[in-house]
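This follows on from our talk about sequence and fold. I would like you to pick a protein and set down its sequence and fold. Go ahead and set the record down below:
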Amino acid sequence: MTNHMIEAGKPAAKLKSEALQVLLERGLVHQCTDLEALDAKLAAGPVTAYAGFDATAASLHVGHLMPLMTMRWLQKLGHKPIIVLGGGTSQVGDPSFRNEARPLLEQQQIAANIAGIRRSIERLLDLEGEDGAQLVDNAEWLTEFRFLEFLRDYGAHFTVNRMMTFDSVKSRLDAQMPLTVLEFCYMMLQAVDFLELARRHDCSLQVGGSDQWGNIINGVELGRKGEGRQLFGLTVPLITTASGAKMGKTAAGAVWLHPEHLSPFAFWQFWRNTADADVPKFLRLFTELPMNEVIRLSELQGAELNEAKKILATQVTTIVHGAEAARHALEQGDALFAGQADNLEPTHRLPLVRLAEGLGLLELLVDVGFATSNGDARRLVEGGGVRLNSKVVDDPRRRISSGDIGAKDALTLAAGKRRKALVRFE
């Protein structure tokens, strides 16, 4: 089995399939188990591919957009996506590149999380018709296994020697952190997922994040050893911002896809605040704009680059939340940046009790994600880059009072020229 490492946007050889050409051009491929064979299979006709998401939270976040955009492109180009919602594997928890075990979730919480994730998937993929994407729960087969039956049928196809070589396992052991048998078995469960989907739906391709490479390899090898199936694995790159931060994380927390956890306006503003250096990459990865338009926008400089950021924000918000929500977010963004904050939806909501407890300006800057720490916030304030209700504030000891929020229980906060928030206290 060949492991192809791919440089974003630069195909290693001439390809036959439009699907791989597009995915490589957009930078959505990091590793592939057998690029040439997968290319031939994609060129020969429709392929069924799957991506899996454990239900560890009530919403997916923007870090999940990479595999989802890959599945979206595959569907647009004639292939069939399956999304596996991990009702079974969520009961174990993926240990990949974590220093400690995930907390075990109750069945009721897993079911509630799956319901929230399902609503986001339904927006991102077309579920209608015979060729529509399928949503399946791996609890359907994993909970049917008896322990001895599982070991007898699958255990002989895995060796501890091989499993110990995967980076996801080695990283935990190198850190001298315990790895439970429960977690160690996770990669076996994910491998069985792939084989079950191959049996039930003729699925031959798994798409996942680069941290899932070892788990995906196990599934490919199980299909070959157990039933002589040719299965393929493809990973998307781990995306970091120009500052080196992991994509999808901010000082205020994860950037959620579900509107109940993050409003479409706040989601839009996250993309509007993209660093200049990240605009070309994000346009390629997270929008469906033609590549000639991506290139044109990527070449803009100065004030014109802000228009590219608005296009980026509106395009991604349209994909995740729909055209109407994106249009409304754009209008709100224009109004907020023009200083017309009346009647706008807030970008952030905080409990009113925070004022009574004594909310400092530095804390507020961290809460809305404009700073990563109080020290970072202090430097912003002392540098004259912070405005509260359009007025520069240079005192880091400044406290937020009821007089700052006015009759509408809201205030505007800005850091520099391009980061603005409307905070409502409720």
Observations:
- Residues 263-340 form a domain with the Tyrosyl-Transfer RNA Synthetase fold (CATH 1.10.240.10).
- The first helix runs from residue 18 to 26.
- Residues 287 and 316 are 6 Å apart (CA to CA).
- The radius of gyration is 23 Å.
